[in-house]
Design goal:
It is built from twelve helices and eight strands. It has one domain: Alpha/Beta hydrolase fold, catalytic domain (Rossmann fold, 3-Layer(aba) Sandwich). Helix 5 crosses helix 8. It starts with 15 loop residues before the first strand and ends in a 7-residue tail after the last helix. It has an eight-stranded mixed β-sheet with strand order 1-2-4-3-5-6-7-8, with helices on both faces. Helix 10 links the parallel strand 7 and strand 8.
Length: about 290
């Protein structure tokens, strides 16, 4: 995907910026005033996944949403920089360069893992919020088969092209259904656009291939800061039990469940998710004291 030519129908482009911060050329969206909230999407998504939640949070905060390297409109600067540690490090460099000081980092799915990894080095004062946080491993045969498949696909130069060539409304609809979420036509169309972009798919596959969650999971008991884990009761991709198990390891974690929502809860019901986030943040930093 190119920027800005391809953004006519992309959500919230009025807030978009392109920032060069080595090794990547980042696409971010920034709006609002107040304590800074950094939003990190999950694997295979982009800033479009925050289209409903972003403006709600921007009423009382300065919200920064970022496309991960190679995904959405962020241009990758180093293919080897797509693992958990590298992306957390590169995002930390970006926020230092721009002078952003996140009060809280909000991550969806794999983005929640990145948020916690960033917090290990620079804990945000308000803490970390994970939405259907991908903080567990696949079980059984899938535990070794899925990572192996990701590596094979990522290192096959034709794999991304084959995926995008076969991506259509029906196939993307099936993928989304497998998350336990139901999106509106706009949401499905945006994911279809991402699925049909070879660079985006290639970066997502490479991220999966380089993903290593073990060190972060081992370090959870040492991450002593406020953490809110929001789950959707219908999440098929990352079952709510994953957040419950992670919360037992995190000293300052709280789990909140939203009934009837799937893995993309923040897209299905942004108002409900915003309410949970704001209630939790108000306990950390009451709005009347926010600058």
């Amino acid at each position: 995907m190119r920027f800005p030519e391809d953004t006519t129908n992309w959500p919230l482009t009025e807030h978009s910026r392109i920032i060069l911060c080595r090794p990547h050329r980042w696409h971010v969206q920034v709006a609002g005033h107040g304590p800074v909230l950094l939003l990190i999407h999950g694997a295979g998504g982009a800033t479009q996944s925050w289209r409903g939640l972003f403006p709600l949070l921007a009423r009382d905060h300065r919200v920064v949403a970022v496309d991960l390297p190679g995904q959405g409109f962020t241009r990758i600067g180093g293919r080897q920089r797509l693992g958990l540690d590298a992306m957390a490090e590169d995002l930390a460099t970006l926020i230092r360069q721009e002078g952003w000081h996140p009060h809280a980092i909000i991550g969806h799915s794999a983005g929640a893992a990145i948020a916690l990894r960033m917090a290990m080095d620079n804990p945000p004062p308000g803490g970390v919020i994970g939405i259907n946080a991908a903080l567990g491993k696949f079980r059984g045969v899938a535990g070794w088969l899925f990572p192996l498949m990701a590596r094979v696909l990522a290192f096959n130069p034709f794999s991304a092209g084959m995926f995008t060539a076969t991506a259509n409304a029906a196939s993307v609809g099936r993928l989304l259904k497998g998350t336990g979420s139901t999106l509106d036509p706009e949401g499905e169309a945006l994911y279809l656009a991402l699925a049909q972009d070879r660079g985006h798919v290639d970066a997502t596959l490479s991220m999966m291939a380089q993903w290593d969650l073990d060190p972060l999971l081992a370090a959870l008991p040492q991450i002593d800061l406020p953490v809110l884990l929001i789950t959707g009761s219908r999440d098929i991709a990352v079952p709510p039990e994953t957040s419950v198990a992670a919360a037992r390891q995190l000293p300052g974690a709280t789990v909140r469940s939203l009934d009837g929502l799937g893995h993309l809860a923040h897209e299905e019901a942004p108002e409900a998710v915003a309410s949970e986030i704001n209630l939790w943040l108000d306990r950390k930093m009451p709005r009347q004291t926010a600058l």
